[in-house]
Amino acid sequence: MSNTKCEYQRTFVAGSSRRATSVELDDGFFDVAIYTSSWDARCVSIVEANQLKSNLGICICFNTRDKEGLRDKHDIVLNNYLRPLKNMVLSI
């Protein structure tokens, strides 16, 4: 993920996806961490990152759900991870 400046000095967040057999995250302290819940189990792998800290964590929960209830289970995992950090959850 990067923060990129455009021609008019406005910034936006850009992200990328990668595939790995284990959680390979940059440990450290960040201003903002953005989480998104999904039916896919990859969305909860972030909770395995022990050294990832941020001033603000935002969990985006879209209204779309799967029939098996995986999205609802992952919402709980991410919210439990963020609760002690007193971070924000946005339902979209």
How would you describe what is shown here?
- The protein has 92 residues and is of the alpha/beta class.
- It has a domain at 29-92.
- The protein has one helix and five strands; from the N terminus they run ββββαβ.
- It has one helix spanning 70-82; strands at 2-5, 11-14, 28-36, 52-61, 88-91.
- The strands form two sheets. A three-stranded parallel sheet has the order 3-4-5, covered by helices on one side. A two-stranded antiparallel sheet has the order 1-2.
- Helix 1 links the parallel strand 4 and strand 5.
Radius of gyration in whole Å, from Cα? 14 Å
List the helices and strands in order.
Answer: EEEEHE
Helix content: 10-25%
For the sheet with most strands, the description reads: 3 strands, parallel
Note the quaternary state here: single chain
Order of neighbouring strands in the sheet with most strands: 3-4-5
Strand content: 25-35%
Q: Tags for this entry?
A:
92 residues; alpha/beta; three-stranded parallel β-sheet; two-stranded antiparallel ribbon; 5 strands; 14% helix
